[in-house]
Amino acid sequence: MNETAWQHALLDAITTPQWQPDPRFPAAALAVYRNNYRVGLMEMLALVYPICRQLLGDDFFEALSREYVKATPSASGNLHRYGGSFANFVAAFEHTAHIGYLSDVARLEW
């Protein structure tokens, strides 16, 4: 396998939620990369949506961000493009659907 193919396989292993074990990538080492990837996306959401975070509180926003990251993989290598559909996710998420204005706040922040 050439280097480019290996890099693409590693990226898939990091970003794919239902990734199957692969002998090329030790599970323990890969877990570190996968966690850093998810945490990075969650931290980006906290930076982009500070008012939503303030309205929900840190713990709830972190849990919401975790669910969003699970459901919404990044479509770009540029973290600044991540989170554009967060408002729609918030509107449909059962634990925030009753806070009608929250998705509007997220749209304004985006």
Describe this structure as you would to a colleague.
With 110 residues, the chain is an all-alpha fold. It has helices spanning 3-15, 27-48, 50-56, 58-71, 86-92, 100-109. The mean pLDDT is 89. It has six helices and no strands. Helix 2 (27-48) packs across helix 4 (58-71), helix 3 (50-56) crosses helix 4 and helix 3 (50-56) runs antiparallel to helix 6. It is elongated, with a radius of gyration of 16 Å.
Give the structure's gist in a few sentences:
The chain is 66% helix and 0% strand.
Low-confidence stretches: none
Structural class: mainly alpha
Round the mean pLDDT to the nearest integer and report it. 89
Helicity level, as a percent range?
A: 55-70%
Residue fraction in strands: under 5%
SSE order? HHHHHH
**What's the total helix number?**
6
User: Rg from C-alpha positions?
Assistant: 16 Å
Please state the overall shape, judged from the principal axes of the Cα atoms. elongated
List the helices and strands and how they pair.
Blueprint: H1 3-15, H2 27-48, H3 50-56, H4 58-71, H5 86-92, H6 100-109
